[in-house]
């Protein structure tokens, strides 16, 4: 039986930030499950950078089914957690079931990969205090308010926490996360 990894997300998550780690981790032999507020077809979005815009733009992205509702997740069944960005973390951080899941991963020091706006979720469970992280650059003040030291880098590794700014940094993010996974939770 292969090791299981959980991705927590919802509607308006960034398509690439869900599907790239989902496929990359499956390539490595992990069994990857996607959990959301409910079992349903999720509507992801595409964030892109357009000349003349002060921030990213958003367009409809892929749809994908959630394997589990947050209320069905047993964190003990998973060796690691992935937290994609997009707008989903903004409303997901208010979900008490998800906060229990997140807290469990941090309490047991399991590997966690977060990207873009994903750190809004880990901040909601006080998982960033005293840590070094990166995130979408507009979140620098949010990361500092959560007690983290913000670094503007492709990927930042702090123990078992691996963070990244956004989808252009995927290669470095997953390379660093896989290094942590191979040490802490190798595929058997």
TrEMBL record:
Gene3D superfamilies: 3.40.50.880. Residues 4-178 form the DJ-1/PfpI domain. It comes from the Bacteria. CDD domains: GATase1_PfpI_1. InterPro entries: C56_PfpI-like (IPR006286), Class_I_gatase-like (IPR029062), DJ-1/PfpI (IPR002818). Belongs to the peptidase C56 family. This is DJ-1/PfpI family protein. It comes from Streptomyces acidicola.
């Amino acid at each position: 039986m292969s090791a299981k990894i959980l991705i927590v997300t919802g509607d308006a998550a960034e398509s690439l930030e869900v599907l790239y780690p989902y496929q990359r981790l499956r390539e490595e032999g992990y069994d990857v499950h996607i959990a959301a507020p409910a079992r349903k077809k999720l509507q992801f979005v595409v964030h892109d950078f357009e000349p003349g815009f002060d921030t990213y733009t958003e367009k409809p992205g892929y749809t994908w089914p959630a394997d589990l509702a947050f209320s069905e997740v047993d964190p003990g069944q998973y060796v690691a957690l992935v937290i994609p960005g997009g707008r989903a973390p903004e409303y997901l951080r208010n979900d008490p079931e998800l906060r229990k899941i997140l807290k469990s991963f941090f309490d047991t020091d399991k590997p966690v990969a977060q990207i873009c706006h994903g750190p809004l979720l880990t901040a909601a469970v006080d998982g960033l205090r005293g840590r070094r992280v990166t995130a979408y650059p507009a979140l620098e003040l949010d990361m500092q308010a959560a007690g983290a030291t913000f670094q503007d880098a492709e990927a930042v590794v702090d123990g078992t926490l691996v963070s990244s700014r956004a989808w252009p940094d995927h290669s470095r993010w997953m390379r660093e996360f896989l290094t942590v996974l191979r040490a802490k939770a190798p595929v058997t």
